[in-house]
Design goal:
This protein has 123 residues and is an alpha+beta fold. It contains two helices and eight strands, in the order ααββββββββ. The protein has an eight-stranded antiparallel beta barrel. The protein is globular, with a radius of gyration of 19 Å. It starts with a helix and ends with a strand.
């Protein structure tokens, strides 16, 4: 009987803790919702990404000369921004270097790669 009690004592908290969403992930989600303009590339002001509260996004890359915005889904997990475009449905991870309600700097990749940091300003 004591073994069962101890087993329940240690397993039940694990079951409930796995269901809880990280509060810092929720704060990041709330700050990200909105339209962000790229301000750190040769395409300043013509490229943007709009994060919607339902986990979808639209984006326009003025550098690629696309005639229409692209779209996909996004989520926050363990303080990573994870984006999956409809045209290229693979998770792409971004780390935050800076995030406020009006400015953001992110970098693509889970490693310290040569990918450049991209700066955004909220519209």
């Amino acid at each position: 009987m004591m073994k069962r009690f101890l087993l329940l004592f240690f397993i039940l908290p694990l079951l409930f803790s796995g269901c809880k969403k990280d509060a810092s992930d929720e704060r990041i989600h709330d700050v990200l919702v909105g339209k962000w303009l790229v301000i750190s590339s040769g395409c300043n002001g013509s490229s943007w990404r709009e994060y919607k509260a339902d986990g979808t996004f639209d984006e326009f890359d003025g550098c690629l000369l696309l005639l229409r915005p692209s779209a996909g889904t996004w989520r926050i997990e363990n303080q990573w921004l994870i984006i999956k475009a409809k045209v290229f449905p693979i998770d792409v991870y971004y780390s935050f270097y800076y995030l406020s309600t009006t400015n953001m700097t992110i970098k693509r990749g889970k490693t310290d790669s040569d990918n450049p940091q991209v700066k955004y300003k909220k519209e």
